[in-house]
């Protein structure tokens, strides 16, 4: 898993370089691995009306939903930190916020998978890996509405 995880984290780091974060100055990138091996990325997009800000994970999930791939999510990596030239700084892994955990859960349930979530620090020195069910236990999703049955 390490090589695939590291490649996914690198894609998330690259996405973070394209974040639009003029208010917080904190760049986040997300990379989604689909079941066919494709990688789709997203970066945070801030807005002067803070509530309209899009997290990186939400931007990436919106991309796969718009392509009709919401049921193909296999894994996700998230990287965050403050930009310093071409690098990101920060030694603590960034974790998905509650909203993003719920957004990820929707795609994970549609994909019928308890996906791996790799959380990495901006400087690349620290990585924490979880199953989504660890980050969002007892999640509410499509299965609760009877939209997914086993």
Give a quick set of tags describing it:
26% strand, alpha+beta, 150 residues, 4 helices, 6 strands, six-stranded mixed beta sheet
What does this structure look like?
- This protein is of the alpha+beta class and 150 residues long.
- 29% of the residues lie in helices and 26% in strands.
- The protein has four helices and six strands.
- Strands 1, 2, 3, 4, 5 and 6 form a six-stranded mixed sheet that branches.
- Strand 3 and strand 4 (87-89) form a beta hairpin.
- Helix 2 (56-66) runs parallel beside helix 3.
- The mean pLDDT is 96.
What is the element layout, followed by pairings?
Blueprint: H1 2-16, E1 27-34, E2 39-43, H2 56-66, E3 73-84, E4 87-89, H3 98-110, E5 116-121, E6 127-131, H4 132-135
Parallel strand pairs: 3-5
Antiparallel strand pairs: 1-2, 1-3, 3-4, 5-6
Helix pairs in contact: 2-3
């Amino acid at each position: 898993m390490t090589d695939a995880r590291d490649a996914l984290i690198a894609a998330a780091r690259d996405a973070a370089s394209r974040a639009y974060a003029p208010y917080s100055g904190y760049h986040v990138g997300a990379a989604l691995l689909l079941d066919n091996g494709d990688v789709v990325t997203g970066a945070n997009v801030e807005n002067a009306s803070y509530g309209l800000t899009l997290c990186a994970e939400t931007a990436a999930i919106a991309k796969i939903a718009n392509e009709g791939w919401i049921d193909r999510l296999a894994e996700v990596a998230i990287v965050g930190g403050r930009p310093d030239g071409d690098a990101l700084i920060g030694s603590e892994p960034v974790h998905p916020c509650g909203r993003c955990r719920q957004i990820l859960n929707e795609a994970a349930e549609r994909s019928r998978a308890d996906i791996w979530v790799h959380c990495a620090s901006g400087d690349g020195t620290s990585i924490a890996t979880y199953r989504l069910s660890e980050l969002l236990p007892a999640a509410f999703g499509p299965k609760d509405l009877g939209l997914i049955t086993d």
